[in-house]
Amino acid sequence: MYKEELAIISQAVLNEMEGYEFYKMAGDQAKTQGNKEAFMRLANEELKHAEYLKKLWTSLSNGGELKIEEILSSGIDIPSPEIYRWDKVDKAYATLAMSIYGIGMQMEKNSIDFYEDAKKKVSSESSLGLFDLLIKWEKIHLEQFTNQYQLLKEEWWAEQQFAPF
């Protein structure tokens, strides 16, 4: 009954695990403790996303329907953007940081697009509810990366004497 839906959820789990690995790697590359912690928080959030999706997959594969309230009661909490503490990036690290934030922005945009598209293909209320929740979460991540990228871009342009202002 939920064959296509299960395939979508399986792909979503893989996407989230790829995000986890990327943010973990970015945290390992970060040069400041604040940035390391922010990337590790993002990595752990991607793991949470995968856990919620796996829970949904298990329920649907057993022929059941998981209520979104059951997922919410398990502790899902969309973080406030203020929890990410991004430290000032050293000039020597700026280009790498911009690359990481740029890739992060693209990953988050892709996740939002994936969940928006997935909503058109699923029928269970729990899938729709969880996808809506994940879209909101991914938008917070996207906003964080976009803000950091813009700050670094302006600094980088000024450093390179490309500043268009």
Describe the structure.
This protein is an all-alpha fold. It has a single domain, classed as Ferritin, core subunit, four-helix bundle (Ferritin), CATH 1.20.1260.10. It has five helices and no strands. It has helices spanning 3-29, 33-61, 68-72, 94-119, 125-159. Helix 1 (3-29) runs antiparallel to helix 2, helix 1 (3-29) runs antiparallel to helix 4 and helix 4 (94-119) packs antiparallel against helix 5 (125-159). The longest helix has 35 residues, at 125-159. The termini are far apart. The mean pLDDT is 82.
The total tally of domains equals 1
- CATH superfamily label: Ferritin, core subunit, four-helix bundle
What is the CA-based Rg, rounded? 18 Å
CATH architecture tag: Up-down Bundle
Distance between the termini: 58 Å
How much of the residues is beta strand, in percent? under 5%
Tally of DSSP β-strands: 0
CATH-defined topology: Ferritin
Q: Sketch the topology as an H/E string, one letter per element.
A: HHHHH
CATH class: Mainly Alpha
CA-based shape: elongated
Low-confidence stretches: none
What's the gist of this structure?
This protein is mostly helical and 165 residues long.
